[in-house]
Amino acid sequence: MIVPISIIQKNIIIITLLFTATVVSQNQRFDTFIKDSLDNYIESSILKWEIPGLAIGIVKEGQIIFNKGYGIKQINKSDTVNRNTLFNIGSLTKAITCASVVIESQKNNFALSDPINKWLPNFHFKNSIASSNVIIEDILTGRTGLGSHQGDFLFWKTQLNKNNIINIFHHIETEIVPRRKFIYNNTSYILLDDILLNATGKDWKGTIKSNFFFPLKMNDSYTSSNEIPIEKKNCLAYPHLKHTKKIIRLSHEDIQNMGPAGSIVSSSTDMCKWMMEFINMDGVFGSSTKKTIRRPYQLRGYRTHKENTNQLRFLFSGMGWNIFEEYNHLTYVHDGGTDGYKSYLMIIPESKYGVIVLTNSRSHNFAEALVEELHYAIMNQPFQNISNEYLKTYRAKEREELNNETKLNKLKHTKTAYSIEDYTGTYHNLLYGNMKIELSNNYLKLRLLQHQNTLSAQMSYLGNDSFLLSFSSPEFSSTRIDFSRKNNQVEGFTFFAEASGDINYEFLKVKSL
């Protein structure tokens, strides 16, 4: 666990960072692990984790030294994953977005220190302090003051477009003042599309293509899945999820309203090209861009190494990166997760290594375990068998969730304390819009009208005007809503979106059915 710290003496940080120039020489253990053990390790692990397909690419000193696919693109089919198979890379998109924004800023189109409302004149948060103080760099470094995952519920698989979401910001209040600390947030990245368009004449998609896809010949990369040409649709790995103890295939849905936060689709081959460019000091980026995008922006905490308690591991936030300082090196890592996909990326610029792992399942922690194992090998550390360690923890969590679900099911009541018709009607939230509760075969059903395909949930009474929601789509975890009353009449409900890391949303009843 990361231990937050408020003060670290400046001289300790300076001494630590001075070591980052040290280059790790080629080591025998890493080469031996790649040659003799990696295939078996991956093949046995994806069976244990029940991952349909995986692609991995490894770069070293400007060369792709390993690039291979394992498993299948979708369950119950024989089409196998290879180095050109397409995956949604999720939040790995953020580092590419940040780099593109920095490149455009260094063309003197705008400054990273520009306030957001310089380029979005009509934009504002609910609180005026944030409106006038949040700058472009704050979005890139996760320091806008917005809460953890605040707003995810509003755009994740909803019909709200970019403009709808930007207008919603007018009603969003930041949790803290800008630049006080790093807080992971997706929604703020959506603002970058219009900022780029107004400042450069090119939108986010245009800058990503002109800065990276075209010059790096990333010919199998797309800013969203709806851009994949028909002749390459069969290259796409389908998303999967573990549901009711079984791996199921999900329908592939475009998430372009996430855009700069997480909609890029790519292959392990193309991501290797991106990693080599990040490492290379004289490529598309240029040295000044590299200096900006590699910079550790805020110290977040530290912990000791499990194999060496005398050595500290510092964690910084960066531009689309988590940055660790350990073994006298800065290591850049990030994961990406969307429904049915999970990815993990690591780059160690000083030693010129990079690793990308792409999978077509969200229900595992093997991607990060594999990357961590390779990191130990690069640093000439002994084999840790991290996958087995993570698997034990994951299975324990599954059992805990099953037990919690069983407990909730036991709390279900067959009858509500009030008339079931009391709860029906239309409910409104200023940020989300409308939800509707209606009777269906003597059961209450909640319909989320802004979500794709009109997402719905069956409502099971838990007592005390509280209901368990079981969604029609397996991508959404069960949650609950609690009703409030005034003069014994239903006034509204609280929708608990905290299961996805978001805040909770208050809905008021506006019309009875």
Give an overview in words:
This protein is an alpha+beta fold. Helix content is 29%, strand content 25%. The chain has an 8-stranded antiparallel beta sheet with strand order 2-1-12-11-10-9-8-7, sandwiched between helices. An 8-stranded antiparallel β-barrel has the order 13-14-15-16-17-18-19-20. A two-stranded antiparallel ribbon has the order 3-6. Helix 2 runs antiparallel to helix 13 and helix 3 packs across helix 12 (287-294). It starts with 9 loop residues before the first helix and ends with a strand.
Helix tally equals 14
Q: Using DSSP, what is the number of strands?
A: 20
Assembly of the depicted chains: single chain
Give the structural class: alpha+beta
What ranges have pLDDT less than 50 throughout 5 or more consecutive residues? 1-26
Head-to-tail CA distance between termini: 49 Å
* Residue share in helix: 25-40%
Radius of gyration: 24 Å
Summed up:
This protein is α+β, with helices and mostly antiparallel strands.
Sequence-ordered SSE layout with sheet pairings:
Layout: H1 10-18, H2 28-49, E1 53-60, E2 63-71, E3 87-88, H3 93-105, H4 116-119, H5 128-133, H6 136-141, H7 152-155, H8 162-168, H9 191-200, H10 204-213, E4 240-243, E5 246-249, E6 265-266, H11 268-279, H12 287-294, E7 298-304, E8 312-317, E9 322-326, E10 329-338, E11 341-348, E12 353-359, H13 366-378, H14 386-411, E13 425-429, E14 433-440, E15 443-448, E16 455-463, E17 466-471, E18 479-486, E19 489-495, E20 505-511
Helix pairs in contact: 2-13, 3-10, 3-12, 13-14
Q: Keywords for this structure?
A:
513 residues; alpha+beta; 29% helix; globular
